[in-house]
């Protein structure tokens, strides 16, 4: 079932699944609200959260190492000379978006860069919303020299905006998660790559342990990400003038 990022729909779907007497649930949750916690914790069905980690203690979850991956992306751009980096994100209420923003802030703190120097663009989850936001940003005074896009659909929108403005070779871009044909773009796209196969295997292992009546050794498992260097994230400030 698709939740469409709607917490109320999530509660309804979970109630429906409970009525169907399913044995277990893998859940990519939409929220971490108290109301949602109560709805999930009273289901009494083995549940493993995937991609997004809820805050309550007894939940079992498997996610990418979102915070560390985002820190690595920010540090990579900083290492290439950038000090004004735009952070493009989904709504901050989405757990993955919040974790990736924290990772980005970690990179800024390590480098002694003020967060106020780096604009945060919070948009919906569509490529069009991202494209419009980045287009407006490029026309603003003190436009950033680099962009970190923290979700793949947003990265597509950012790419469209950069190419339309002919800035794809002078504004650096790093995306979180790969997109199809990323290596064939001009320039090829530098990304933080997740490992969905390993995430899926780990989730299945956790859930089948619960179904067998065994408590998994760890409540939360972070699956490492990798920085894939291809070219777009290695553009230095002022490249258009070089």
Question: What tags apply to this protein structure?
Answer:
38% helix, 10 strands, six-stranded mixed beta sheet, 7 helices, alpha/beta, 242 residues, four-stranded parallel beta sheet
The string of secondary-structure elements, in order, is: HEHEEHEHEHEHEEHEE
- Strand content range: 15-25%
SS content category: alpha/beta
Mean pLDDT: 92
Helical stretch count?
7
Largest sheet: 6 strands, mixed
Strand order of the largest sheet: 5-4-6-7-8-10
Classify the helix fraction into a percent range: 25-40%
What is the radius of gyration?
19 Å
Low-confidence region ranges: none
Number of strands: 10
Structural description of this entry:
The chain has 242 residues and is α/β, with parallel strands linked by helices. Helices cover 38% and strands 17% of the residues. The protein has 7 helices and 10 strands. It has helices spanning 7-19, 34-41, 66-79, 95-111, 127-138, 152-164, 196-211, and strands at residues 25-27, 47-50, 60-64, 85-89, 120-122, 146-149, 172-176, 190-193, 220-223, 226-228. The strands form 2 sheets. Strands 5-4-6-7-8-10 form a 6-stranded mixed beta sheet, sandwiched between helices. The chain has a 4-stranded parallel beta sheet with strand order 1-2-3-9, covered by helices on one side. α6 links the parallel β6 (146-149) and β7. The protein is elongated, with a radius of gyration of 19 Å. The N and C termini lie far apart (51 Å).
